[in-house]
From TrEMBL:
Coiled coil: none annotated. SUPFAM superfamilies: Pectin lyase-like. Residues 1-19 form the signal peptide. Keywords: Signal. The keyword Signal applies. The keyword Signal applies. InterPro entries: PbH1, Pectin_lyas_fold, Pectin_lyase_fold/virulence. It comes from Saccharopolyspora griseoalba. Residues 19-48 are annotated as: Disordered. This is Right handed beta helix domain-containing protein.
Length: 361
């Protein structure tokens, strides 16, 4: 190793150690006007200091340290030598001693976790596979995922937290979760595109017990495609996917997206005569400013509560549309901007329906 390279390695290691003190489809609507500019994203939060058990500065070191990782260790990744690297974590921590992966001073292609009780903290991924997660007790925080070749953050997980991440220009969906009890909190998702994928969305969710809160989803367009995607902020469906139950989507902002704020459908269950296999969804206190024919579209999906939301859009033909046996729904205390029906419901979805307290602003 040259003297210059030795100095670079020491400098990047010191950067961590020196500061440490501890360890669907929709009905057609009219043409839309020119798109309004989106609000700027908030600056990233300050990071606490990190105590590194080991620091890797090239792919060979990274592979060796990931292979030897043990519960309670903090593995740091730093420097230009890891540019474009694909990091794969397969060693598990424990609930009290997770393995922590820190990448605050490097840019990699992707981070893949196939293990339990792992923390992924502060990486930037560019032009790779983004963050791919499979396991229990995973935490993904403070990462920036740019131009992923697939979904930006993909999680087949249980008891997992995805928070304070920025995802831009993912090919498909910014964040896709499937499993049980996944928290998606305070992420910024924008400019999803359809290159090799079949659509371009913000957040997709499948499974049970998820909480999706305080996220910003914005600037997802269907312009410029020969066969455009159906761009939505939040989507679930059961075609070749598990049923979705007991999910709460609250306090999110959805702006400048070309179709729905929320689309929840269970067509496969409907065709099988099993409406209710997906059920129980709460959509509460969200701000929706979208370009679709409706802001909320629900089909074959009973027990949906749409409450305390603010809904607007230049092309809205209706605010909330319930159809195909979406019974026992509640549309309560929402605010709608514009002159259109606030709620439309087909006959099959009227049993158990409650609509009250909605107003225009």
């Amino acid at each position: 190793m040259s003297v210059r390279m030795m100095i670079a390695v020491v400098a990047t290691t010191a950067l961590f150690a020196g500061a440490c003190t501890g360890s669907g489809s929709e009905p057609e609507g009219p043409s839309r006007p020119e798109r309004a500019p989106a609000a700027a994203a908030e600056p990233p939060r300050a990071h606490p200091p990190i105590a590194c058990t080991h620091t890797a500065t090239d792919p060979e070191q990274a592979r060796a340290q990931l292979a030897r990782a043990a519960p309670g260790q903090t593995l740091c990744f730093a420097g230009d030598g890891l540019h474009g690297a694909e990091l794969e974590a397969t060693a598990s921590g424990t609930p009290r001693q997770p393995i922590v992966l820190v990448g605050r001073d490097t840019t990699v292609g992707s981070v893949s976790v196939d293990a339990d009780h792992v923390v992924v903290d502060g990486f930037t991924t560019v032009d790779g596979d983004g963050l791919t997660l499979d396991g229990t007790g995973i935490t993904v925080r403070g990462n920036e995922v740019l131009r992923a070749r697939d979904d930006g953050i993909g999680c087949l997980c249980t008891d997992t937290h995805i928070r304070d991440n920025v995802v831009r220009e993912a090919d498909g969906t910014g964040i896709r979760i499937e499993g049980e009890r996944i928290s998606v909190l305070s992420n910024d998702v924008s400019r999803s595109v359809m290159r090799e994928s079949g659509d371009a969305d913000g957040i997709r969710f499948f499974g049970t017990g998820h909480r999706i809160s305080a996220n910003k989803v914005h600037d997802i367009s269907d312009d410029g495609y020969p066969d455009p995607p159906h761009t939505d902020c939040f989507q679930t469906y059961d075609n070749s996917s598990p049923p979705t139950r007991d999910v709460e989507i609250s306090g999110n902002t959805c702006r400048n997206v070309d179709h729905q704020c929320l689309i929840a459908t269970a067509q496969e269950a409907g065709q099988a005569g099993a409406v209710g296999r997906s059920r129980s969804l709460r959509f509460v206190d969200n701000t929706c400013a979208v370009e679709g024919s409706q802001a909320v579209l629900v089909r074959w999906f009973p027990e949906v509560a749409v409450r305390d939301n603010e809904i607007s859009g230049p092309d809205l033909a209706r605010g909330v549309y319930l159809a195909n046996g979406s019974t026992s729904a509640a549309v309560v205390d929402n605010r709608f901007r514009g002159d259109y029906p606030m709620v439309e419901v087909d006959e099959s979805s009227r049993p158990g329906l409650r609509v009250e307290g909605n107003e225009r602003f």
